[in-house]
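Technical appendix A lists one of the benchmark inputs used to test multi-chain prediction within the project. The record comprises three sequence entries:
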Amino acid sequence: MEPAFGEVNQLGGVFVNGRPLPNAIRLRIVELAQLGIRPCDISRQLRVSHGCVSKILARYNETGSILPGAIGGSKPRVTTPTVVKHIRTYKQRDPGIFAWEIRDRLLADGVCDKFNLPSVSSISRILRNKIGNLSQQSQYEPSKQTSHPQPQPTLPYNHLYSYPTPIGATGTKMPNGLPTVNSYVTAPSIHPYHPPTQVSPYMGYSGTTSAFVTGPTWQPPSGSALSPHSCDITAPLAFKSMAVTRDSMHPVTASAL
DNA sequence: GTCGTGACGGTTGAA
DNA sequence: TTTTCAACCGTCACG
């Protein structure tokens, strides 16, 4: 894991395997596409594989976000304290109850929905590990809250996955639920990347990534009709805040520094 | 020549 | 502290 130099693709572009392209590049891809430039030309121009261009554009069309998905982590926990509590209750009421019956009951009682319903094996594990050796009082009883409270499990991934509409926090969102491309634009706002001082994997892109926002070759679109999502150019901060919340994903800052 | 897609090797972070 | 696992990434090759 020493991505200081990155790798060079067939087009001569530099990338870091396993890491997302910089936001500036991603943004540039979307911008060029909206200017009517074909993906194959974008691919050549930015030296990004056409598969990647295709993927980023597809994602943008689908989610309205140029940002990559959340890398790493685990699925949100479904065995919340509440769920465990209910399972324990079911078990106490009916010691012979099967895990699958508990599962059905959790669903029927509205404790869980189909999205956060624990698997039978999870329930079995709970019965074995948390309830089987539970004396009488619960470790989740408020009166027994000696350790730190369990992290609220109903939102564990939301903070990561919320950025398909990444600027929702700032309220810059189009009626269709998608942010505008232009909301990401405006040079000073796109500063998630420290300019590659020495050896950035992205120096292969016709200059630094900051060249995309400050260089003479790219004028930020001024809210013309090129955005299918209309033209809100009032959100330079939107991108900035988004970048801040996701700055950990930045290849340069995360890997090369 | 263009584009969509799946395999692949890689990174990441929660459990 | 280390390992495991499942998410994601971009590239490449194929059709």
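The longest strand of chain A covers residues 7-8. The CA atoms of residues 71 and 216 of chain A lie 33 Å apart. Comparable benchmark entries are summarised in Table A2.
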